[in-house]
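Lab notes, practical 5.
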Amino acid sequence: MTTWTYQRGHKIEIDFIKSIWVYADNKESIKNVRPCIRCGKMPTEEGYDACLGYLKDVKHACCGHGVEAGYQI
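Output from the prediction step:
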């Protein structure tokens, strides 16, 4: 069984042995932050998607990062 989703357009999956999220392409920890695959920007210092910036009173937002397949958990 594989559980996967996306982070800034990069497919990520859970490594059940280590109990951490990793990038699907190279199994590197997602703690090594990658830029958005659509705009190429890194997240802001606060962790927001740089292409969206700060959105007042919004708890969660995502530009989609060029992923049209949707999300699966």
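Observations recorded by the TA: The first strand starts at residue 4 and ends at 7. The chain has no helices and three strands.
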